[in-house]
Design goal:
Layout lengths: L4 H8 L1 H20 L1 H5 L2 H9 L2 H6 L10 H10 L2 H23 L3 H5 L5 H34 L5 H29 L5 H18 L4 H4 L6 H6 L3 H4 L3 H23 L6
Helix pairs in contact: 1-9, 2-9, 7-9, 7-10, 7-11, 9-10, 9-15, 10-11, 10-15
């Protein structure tokens, strides 16, 4: 396994993915077990409703009902916190896939092996997707356990749909960082560029309900395909998941094409 590019990438991330998984699980469990305190305190909902619509939009969504199970999970986890986790890890993986090899001077050695540049990119992308899936499994498992502990009534299917959407969101922005790195190299700071675009995508999607001029453009944001179908309440939306998956594949293909055409730094 370690003879393959993907195997090596997985081996190098074995400790990091464990830390990301345990940290995610701990954060989810702490958040979920706090739900009864929120459910039994109607003043929190009243305070949230008193906030300006724009502030609500950027804080998780306009008109969220934090006393309901789905509203609480969406507002406290899936609107902001969970995307941050998966986007940061995905972007770090995507930016490092090629850039780290160039930074430590091993890119030329890697590319002298009997594998094409496109295969290197593809295997790095597969490894990143698997690593994000591991964190996604930790997210799903901790949600199931936490919901059972506090009788938070959300079906396992809906939790799985939300977890899968989170993984695909991370893959999308990770592939974006990979494409930027493939085009410009590590000196272009692909993680910073991809992270900035992720913030812009979040703002675009969040403010669209309260800024009419943005409504036409919100489907350009990955967050629209991640959250607008409300997977916590409604479960799987095959079309939305397919768009996220397709974006990840398309950006990975673009990364391979751009990397093929670029001189690699030694």
């Amino acid at each position: 396994m370690l003879r393959s590019v993907a195997g090596r990438a997985l081996f190098e991330q074995r400790r990091a993915v464990l830390a990301w998984s345990l940290g995610t699980a701990a954060m989810v469990l702490v958040t979920v077990v706090y739900y009864p305190s929120v459910r039994d305190n109607p003043e929190l909902n009243s305070f949230y409703e008193s906030l300006p619509p724009a502030v609500q939009a950027l804080s998780g969504g306009v008109g969220l009902d934090f006393a309901s199970a789905s509203g609480y999970l969406t507002g406290e986890l899936f609107a902001i916190t969970v995307p941050i986790i998966f986007i940061i890890y995905g972007v770090l993986l995507g930016a490092a896939a090629i850039g780290r090899e160039e930074e430590r001077g091993t890119a030329e050695l890697l590319l002298t092996a009997p594998v094409t540049r496109s295969r290197v990119v593809a295997e790095k992308a597969v490894a990143a997707a698997l690593l994000l899936a591991v964190v996604g499994a930790a997210l799903f498992g901790s949600l199931v356990i936490g919901c059972a502990l506090v009788d938070l009534e959300v079906s396992a299917g809906n939790l799985l749909a939300s977890s899968l959407a989170s993984v695909l969101l991370g893959i999308t922005f990770g592939a974006l960082a990979l494409a930027i790195s493939g085009a410009l190299g590590h000196r272009a700071h692909p993680a910073a560029w991809a992270g900035s675009l992720a913030v812009a995508a979040y703002i675009l999607y969040s403010l669209a309900p309260v800024v009419s001029s943005l409504e036409t453009w919100q489907k350009l944001s990955a967050f629209y395909w991640y959250l607008s179908s409300d997977p916590v309440s409604n479960g799987f939306d095959a079309g939305h998941l397919a768009v996220l998956a397709g974006a990840g594949v398309a950006l990975t293909a673009l990364a391979a094409l751009l990397f093929e055409r670029r001189d690699v730094a030694s």
